[in-house]
Specification:
With 244 residues, the chain is of the alpha/beta class. The chain is 39% helix and 21% strand. It has ten helices and seven strands. The protein has helices at residues 6-21, 40-45, 57-69, 86-89, 110-119, 134-143, 147-155, 173-181, 203-206, 210-224; strands spanning 28-32, 49-54, 76-80, 95-101, 121-132, 186-194, 235-242. Strand 1 (28-32), helix 2 and strand 2 form a beta-alpha-beta unit. Helix 6 runs antiparallel to helix 7 (147-155). The longest helix has 16 residues, at 6-21. It starts with 5 loop residues before the first helix and ends with a strand. The relative contact order is 0.14.
């Protein structure tokens, strides 16, 4: 699998369920904004048929190289496009799992993007989104002494620190759930943290050896499932089911 964190485990579990529902046939995965294949290639190695939609021809070229090197070129399809025109390049209801990781914080119209991801998902399938968390950014700016930016992140409707912010929005857990469920076609089944404590561990501790790395990973896994820590995670992960 791509890794062993909470997000990776959730995606792996969803794909195992999809494979069971499809009687052993390859699960169909649509990775929107998937770039050079950080998710797509490992998922293809698990036997998934993955279509990556991305605006960057350079990223898609890198994706194809990685797929060939991994021996999964026949399972990976690259399509140049973006979420605004997703219906033009991805069949409606065609994917068992749609990934929108690092997508919702950069699109112009976030509600339209969620609608597009939903429409591309097979009834009974799922949408997986991974987004930047608002309140972790507030804490990071505060600890760094950048109080004006922290105030802006806290009060701005989109969770931005100003016009120079590279992201169009950051979300809290409640905002993310409301956004995904607004259209009535998706139900959030899992809302978890990604990157709660690992970023706060001193580098000297984190890099002190395998035992420390294991301890940090175990602590992070525990923190991801703790509701009280959800809103201070660097990233929020949601898995939402499309109604049948």
């Amino acid at each position: 699998m791509v890794g062993n964190g909470p997000v990776h485990r959730a995606v792996a579990a969803e794909l195992a369920g999809a494979q069971a529902r499809r009687a052993g046939r390859a699960p169909q995965v649509l990775d929107v904004g998937g770039g050079s294949g950080a998710w797509a290639v490992p998922l293809a190695r698990l036997g998934c048929a993955v279509t990556v939609v991305d605006t960057s021809p350079n990223a898609l070229a890198a994706l194809q190289r990685r797929a060939r090197e991994a021996g999964v070129h026949d399972l990976v399809t690259s399509v140049q496009g973006d979420v605004d025109a997703l219906a033009d390049v991805a069949p409606a209801g065609g994917a068992d799992l749609v990934l929108g990781h690092g997508l919702l914080e950069v699109v112009d119209d976030v509600a339209a993007a969620v609608t597009a991801l939903t429409r591309a998902t097979r009834p009974g399938g799922a949408v997986s989104v991974l987004v930047a968390g608002r309140y972790a950014a507030v804490l990071a700016r505060t600890l760094g002494g950048r109080l004006a930016e922290a105030r802006a992140l806290l009060t701005d409707p989109d969770g931005r620190f100003g016009p120079d912010d590279a992201l169009r929005r950051r979300l809290g857990a409640g905002e993310l759930r409301k956004l995904l469920e607004a259209g009535g076609a998706l139900t959030v089944e899992l809302l978890q943290a990604d990157g709660v404590l690992e970023g706060w561990v001193p580098g000297a501790v984190r890099d002190s050896g395998p035992a420390a790395a294991t301890a940090v990973a175990e602590l992070e896994s525990m923190a991801a499932a703790e509701p009280a820590l959800l809103d201070v995670a660097a990233r929020l992960h949601a898995l939402a089911r499309r109604s049948s």
